[in-house]
Amino acid sequence: MKHKQIYNLLIIIITLIVGCYIGISIYLILHQSSEIELLKREKHGYNLKVKELEDMIISARRNEEMQKISPYEKKDKDEIPTIPLKYKELEAAILDFLNTQQYIPDFLPVADFILTKPYLPSRNHYGIDLAGKVGDPIFAAASGVVKEIKMNDEIYGKTILIDHLNGYKTFYGHNSEILAQEGFFIRKGDIIAELGNTGISSAPHLHFEILFKSEHIDPEILIRK
């Protein structure tokens, strides 16, 4: 009887051991399969990221190459490559250009005039004389700061000197009245004075000079006719 009980107990123990071994083996097999599948997915995802990055690099290089192509060079017979330019960048470029133009002294300082004397540096006449009527408005040729005002210059009478903050300066002489104020910012086309006959002058006119980096230039080169 004892032998039979011991035999049955051994069978139970062996069965448990075998069952545990089989269970552990199945768990290990499933776990390993899961890890293998996970590694496959991760590798696939990594490959996708690498492919996406490569595509981005290729696209960036193509865009860079397209930007180097002149808009006047045809890629194909009937195709002209377009240069990417955002609307905001174009708008900013236009505004920057217009802002720069505001400081170029190309605006006629007198509306109605007769040119009585041109730019003659050989005769020490470093501006142009624009004849008109006493009281005619004098306009700023460009935006800038009123650098200096003289009320009794020996030669030019009442004068204004404007610094346009970019190397350009303009000078207005023989005025009858000064309307601008020294040190104030004025804009292109603002009325700064009234035409007159002050200083050494035989008739009412504006003596107008343009300087660039302290060197006189012919105003007729810049002013709009």
Attribute tags:
2 domains, eight-stranded antiparallel beta sheet, rod-shaped, 11 strands, three-stranded antiparallel beta sheet, 3 helices, 38% helix, 225 residues, alpha+beta, Glucose Permease (Domain IIA)
Task: Tell me about this structure.
The structure is a single chain. With 225 residues, the protein is of the alpha+beta class. It is built from three helices and eleven strands. The chain folds into two domains: 1-84; 114-222, Glucose Permease (Domain IIA) (Distorted Sandwich). The protein has helices at 2-68, 87-101, 219-222; strands at residues 114-117, 128-131, 137-139, 144-153, 157-163, 168-175, 177-178, 185-186, 191-194, 205-212, 215-217. Strands 1, 2, 4, 5, 6, 8, 10 and 11 form an eight-stranded antiparallel β-sheet that branches. It has a three-stranded antiparallel β-sheet with strand order 3-9-7, with no helix packed on it. Strand 5 (157-163) and strand 6 form a beta hairpin.
User: Could you estimate the helical fraction of the residues in percent?
Assistant: 25-40%
- Which structural category fits the helices and strands? alpha+beta
Percent of sequence in beta strands: 15-25%
User: Into how many domains do the coordinates divide?
Assistant: 2
Q: What is the CATH architecture descriptor of the largest domain?
A: Distorted Sandwich
Supply Rg.
44 Å
Regarding CATH, which class of the largest domain?
Mainly Beta
| Superfamily (CATH H level) name of the largest domain | Glucose Permease (Domain IIA)
Largest sheet: 8 strands, antiparallel
Low-confidence region ranges: 42-47, 69-78
Number of strands: 11
How does the overall form come out from the CA principal axes? rod-shaped
The H/E string reads HHEEEEEEEEEEEH
Count of runs of 4 or more consecutive helical residues = 3
